[in-house]
Amino acid sequence: MSEADSRPPKIRIRGLCKAFGPKVVLDRLDLDVPAGRSLVVIGGSGSGKSVLIKCILGLIEPEAGTIEIDGRNVLAMRRAEREAINEHIGMLFQGGALFDSLPVWENVCFGLIAKRRLKRREARPRAIEILAQVGLGPEVADLSPAELSGGMQKRVALARAIAAQPDIIFFDEPTTGLDPIMGAIIDALIVEQVQRLGATAFSITHDMASAQRIADTVAMIHKGAIIWTGPASEMRHSGNPYVDQFVRGSTEGPIRMEVRR
Ligand SMILES: Nc1ncnc2c1ncn2[C@@H]1O[C@H](COP(=O)(O)OP(=O)(O)OP(=O)(O)O)[C@@H](O)[C@H]1O
């Protein structure tokens, strides 16, 4: 058993419920995110992956359940306590979510300037150091994100996600919109940076090749609950008909039958 396996989970979710009107999105969801490991949640469109991340980040309030981070239920915390926890969390949003009105260096250090009061004159050289960690040179620092390719924008978004040296990082479909080679490059960078920081990674993706590359553990969400969890190496032969169908991208199987009804 490795050291990581003997540690309590970094994030422990129990009985999480969220509905929008009559639509139940999370249905008594239980999930452990092992400390210092990389968990990838897979699942179909509309299965509740983004809502789950938003609940953990405190952007959506669930109706029931607990979310413990380092053993403390964040749902019961006051706003200031919750914000203090979020300062140790990095996030790579789907599509990058960079501000085109700010140069790249300011995007990278946005959180450090706003929350950690890093001075602007110190932020620019700091941003250049962080950009180097994701393979971007100093010439990129003063460009607008709009001037960069999709792959470079992802690198900048990754630089921003790691800038505050977070101990948990969320990746929301990190390879969406990238060609397969650039997707593999971004995945390798994610793995490298998560390991360098010793962080816990929580990702959601539709991209099975990406899941295989970045995950230690894979969890499948279906109809608002986790229906399978296992090592990434077992994802392609889980023996679970839902996982098998999803991984193969097959139109035949239990998921289709439910859609048909
Ligand atoms: N703010 C909201 N108000 C109403 N319904 C919402 C809201 N946010 C999400 N939903 C609904 O919750 C369900 C789950 O959405 P979610 O975005 O979590 O899916 P997902 O698994 O991330 O899908 P995808 O892979 O397509 O991004 C969807 O039916 C969606 O329409």
TrEMBL record:
In alphabetical order, the GO MF annotations are: ATP binding; ATP hydrolysis activity
Indicate whether Ligase appears among the record's keywords. no
Domain (ABC transporter): give its ranges.
Answer: 11-248
What Pfam families does this protein map onto? ABC_tran
Q: Which UniProt keywords apply?
A: ATP-binding, Nucleotide-binding, Transport
The protein depicted here goes by the name ATP-binding cassette domain-containing protein
Instruction: Identify the species of origin.
Output: Elioraea tepida
